[in-house]
């Protein structure tokens, strides 16, 4: 969606907050949603093999269009059940998030920040950002692996109180995309939130999924 469209969309909706996840998204940008199709294409990220689309590798470059087209489905996050089982913890009311930029282009950060705007209003769902890992329940890691960030991520993880969880936000953090490899602490992440950058709805869904898993 272009900037102009966002402007007019805001006027049309009169600043109303989303009803997602109870209702389907009001205005999701389609190219960061699920892709469906068939056929072999020259995918620069190796996200399409044997007629299967790997959300965690896709960099949303659109080169595969029209053989593969967006479906509009934003519910793309996945949970690593093995890790979830090992870290079975209850987060019943609120979830405090601490984000680390391991080496991003800046776009994942912007989409994550969008969650605190009135349009998405993450606070209504009991989700909050915190400026200290000591107060965080979940660590959100964005960007590709960078040697000097390994220690930073590890220290943040150590500083977080138990119970804690890790979320990999964006293709870079999940698979490394075409930029490199994922950060060391994201192998494997508890929750993967795919997209390049991920749609804010997908981020919201991934964080809520993490909260639900931990209170199963
Ligand atoms: S949009 Fe995704 S799946 Fe399609 S070519 Fe680009 S990286 Fe590959
Ligand atoms: S996943 Fe895409 S948008 Fe996010 S940091 Fe990597 S290149 Fe940027």
Structural summary, described in words:
The protein has about 220 residues and is an alpha/beta fold. The protein has two domains: about 20-70, no CATH class; about 80-215, Rossmann fold. Helix content is about 25%, strand content about 20%. It has a six-stranded mixed beta sheet. The longest helix has 15 residues, at about 200-215. The mean pLDDT is about 90. Bound molecules: iron/sulfur cluster (SF4) (2 copies). One iron/sulfur cluster (SF4) binds next to loops.
Which molecules are bound in this entry?
A: iron/sulfur cluster
Strand order of the largest sheet: 5-10-9-8-6-7
Number of strands: 10
Helix content: 25-40%
The tally of structural domains comes to 2
Q: Quote the distance from N terminus to C terminus.
A: 36 Å
Fold topology:
Elements: H1 3-13, E1 35-37, E2 48-49, E3 52-53, E4 68-70, E5 78-79, H2 81-86, E6 95-103, H3 107-114, E7 127-129, E8 138-143, H4 147-159, E9 165-169, H5 171-174, E10 191-193, H6 200-214
Parallel strand pairs: 6-7, 6-8, 8-9, 9-10
Antiparallel strand pairs: 1-4, 2-3, 5-10
One iron/sulfur cluster binds next to loops.
Task: Summarize, please.
Helices cover 26% and strands 18% of the residues. It contains six helices and ten strands.
Which short descriptors sum up this protein?
216 residues; alpha/beta; Rossmann fold; 2 domains; 10 strands; globular; binds iron/sulfur cluster
């Amino acid at each position: 969606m272009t900037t102009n469209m966002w402007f007019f969309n805001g006027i049309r909706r009169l600043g109303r907050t989303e009803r997602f996840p109870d209702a389907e998204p009001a205005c999701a940008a389609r190219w960061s949603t699920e892709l469906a199709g068939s056929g072999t294409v020259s995918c620069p990220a190796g996200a399409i093999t044997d007629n299967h689309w790997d959300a965690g590798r896709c960099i949303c470059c659109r080169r595969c269009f029209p053989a593969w087209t967006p479906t509009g489905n934003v519910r793309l996050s996945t949970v690593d059940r093995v890790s979830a089982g090992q870290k079975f913890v209850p987060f019943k009311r609120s979830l405090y998030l601490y984000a680390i930029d391991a080496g991003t282009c800046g776009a994942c950060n912007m989409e994550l920040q969008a969650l605190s705007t009135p349009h998405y209003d993450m606070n209504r769902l009991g989700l909050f950002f915190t400026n200290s890992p000591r107060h965080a329940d979940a660590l959100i890691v964005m960007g590709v692996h960078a040697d000097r960030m390994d220690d930073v991520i590890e220290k943040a993880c150590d500083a977080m109180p138990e119970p804690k969880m890790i979320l990999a936000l964006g293709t870079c953090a999940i698979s490394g995309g075409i930029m490199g490899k994922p950060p060391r602490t994201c192998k494997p992440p508890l929750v993967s939130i795919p997209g390049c950058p991920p749609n804010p709805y997908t981020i919201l869904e991934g964080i809520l999924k993490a909260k639900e898993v931990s209170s199963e």
